[in-house]
Cytidine deaminase
Amino acid sequence: MNKEQLMESARNMKGKAYAPYSKFPVGVALLLKDGTVIHGVNVENVSLGATNCAERTAIFTAITNGYKKGDFQAIAVAGDTVDFLPPCSICRQVLAEFCLPDMPVYLTNEKREILALTLQDLLPYAFTDLEM
Ligand code: THU
């Protein structure tokens, strides 16, 4: 699956987002190295801090399905924003827990352009499992 197809898959998920408070739907498609695609949407809550972003929904679903650190090939994030929509900082930290620094992260914008970054680009000097 190429990045355009993965992004289309992320876009198609937006309709499933539960975002009644922000009205900001986000869809994610997470490609596994075995070719499986796992999706995620943001799931909000009236207690706003209980909201879960689409990226974390996808990662947590993958872990629930038995995937492990190193099994992740790429992630595509889609919203309705004019500019490229990047994962929030909490999601970047969660991605860093399970994904390698060179994993591609695909962002998109209103013009449906795709910006290909890596996790390392988004989270340099990540706090990981440092030796002591
Ligand atoms: N959100 C995501 O799901 N992913 C992002 O990359 C950025 C923000 C959600 C959280 C909240 O439901 C809404 O978008 C507005 O912040």
In short: The chain has a mean pLDDT of 97.
